[in-house]
Structures are given as structure tokens and as C-alpha cells.
Design a protein that fits this description.
single chain, alpha+beta, OB fold (Dihydrolipoamide Acetyltransferase, E2P), 2 domains, eight-stranded mixed sheet, 5 helices, 8 strands
């Protein structure tokens, strides 16, 4: 008897015992080999169960993969939609922007599972840079977003956040929290703002009069 045949018979014996459906010992026929059709049938089921078990282990390993909080200092942001306006590329209420990255930084983040976007080769040749899309959500984990101007800081909320769509920004520091997702065997990490510190670029008279 082959190893597979032995494994199949042992597996189904354990299954019957666990279900309490195994026939009584006195009614068992000892040392009677299974027919070829029976072994082929059991072998197919055994291999399917083994494959399913392996897939479950792979899913378990993938869901355990986590990405830590990301700190980015002095970043250049673009494609700003802090107001969450509906556009051809954005759903109404979705507040987001992108962080432009250097090539080596983008590769490192992509390797860690972040949802990094790369420009097409012809665009890259024109100097276009890869970027990381970042979402802003106020539901489960509201972010802390501050603007700094004239040495003063002001915290923004949902009603005032839209001002960043047109603000002149001289510096931006970000703390990004990961959201690890998995759908239909695919997985990745989506970026959400945890904290954001935006320094505004003010002119000489704005500084003089203390205006944001």
C-alpha cells in the first residue's frame, strides 16, 4: 500500500471516530484492501482537504503581517482634496491627498506593502515621481491636524480642513497609520492620516499683522 493510500485510510478512520460514525469493531472486516475506485475517490478528497488546509495557513500568515506607523518629515504633498469634493476620480466625501516620494523610498514602502503608485515610464522620464495616496477619515480614528503660522498652531476639524486645498505650504510633517486589508486573496496596506503638522508660507505683512 502506498503512502498516499495509507494516509487516506488513516485520515478517514480518524474522521469517523471523531464523528462517532465508525462501525463497531465486531462488524469490521480486517485486512480487506480497498478497491481501486474507492482509493481514487478517497485520495481526491484527501488532496482537496490538504490543499484547503494549506490555503488556510497561507491566509493566516498573511493576516498576521502588519505594517507599523509611518513617520514622514518635510514631505511634498499634492492632488489635494481635503474638502472631499466629488470629481471624476474621487467619490463625494472622500478626503485625500498624495505624498510624493523618491524612487528608493517608494521601493522600500512598496516592499513593506504600502499602496505606492508609480508613474508610467514616459511620465517618469519627464520627472514625474512615485507617490503614496493618503486618506483622511474622521469616523473611527479622527486625525490630529494642525496648521502652524507665525509661531501659533491651530487644530483643524472637518469643517475647516478644506482650507488646506488652497493654502501655501512651506513644510509638512506626517504620521501615517496603516490599514491592513485583504480581499479575495489579495492584500495590502492603505495609508490614513494619524497626525499632520502643516506650516503655512506667509508673506511679510501677514507676519507683521499676525494673520494666518
Amino acid at each position: 500500500m502506498t503512502f498516499l493510500e495509507t494516509s487516506v485510510k488513516d485520515t478517514f478512520r480518524r474522521h469517523w471516530r471523531s464523528k462517532g460514525t465508525a462501525p463497531a469493531k465486531k462488524n469490521r472486516r480486517k485486512n480487506i484492501p480497498y478497491s481501486r475506485e474507492r482509493i481514487d475517490y478517497l485520495s481526491t478528497i484527501f488532496l482537496k482537504r490538504t490543499d484547503l488546509h494549506n490555503k488556510k495557513e497561507e491566509v493566516s500568515i498573511m493576516t498576521k503581517h502588519t505594517v507599523s506607523t509611518l513617520n514622514l518629515e518635510g514631505v511634498h504633498i499634492g492632488f489635494r482634496n481635503f474638502a472631499g469634493k466629488e470629481t471624476a476620480y474621487n467619490q463625494a466625501g472622500s478626503r485625500n491627498f498624495v505624498v510624493f516620494l523618491e524612487e528608493d523610498q517608494a521601493d522600500e514602502l512598496a516592499k513593506d506593502g504600502w499602496n505606492v503608485k508609480y508613474p508610467k515610464p514616459e511620465k517618469a522620464a519627464e520627472g514625474k515621481r512615485p507617490y503614496l495616496p493618503v486618506q483622511i477619515g474622521f469616523n473611527a480614528y479622527p486625525p490630529k491636524i494642525y496648521i502652524i503660522s507665525n509661531g501659533e498652531h491651530t487644530q483643524l476639524d472637518e469643517s475647516s480642513l478644506s482650507m488646506l486645498d488652497w493654502a501655501d505650504i512651506s513644510n509638512c510633517d506626517l504620521v501615517i497609520r496603516p490599514y491592513n486589508w485583504e480581499v479575495n486573496g489579495k492584500s495590502g496596506t492603505k495609508a490614513y492620516v494619524k497626525a499632520m503638522y502643516v506650516t503655512l508660507d506667509t508673506d511679510e505683512f501677514a507676519d507683521k499683522y499676525g494673520i494666518l
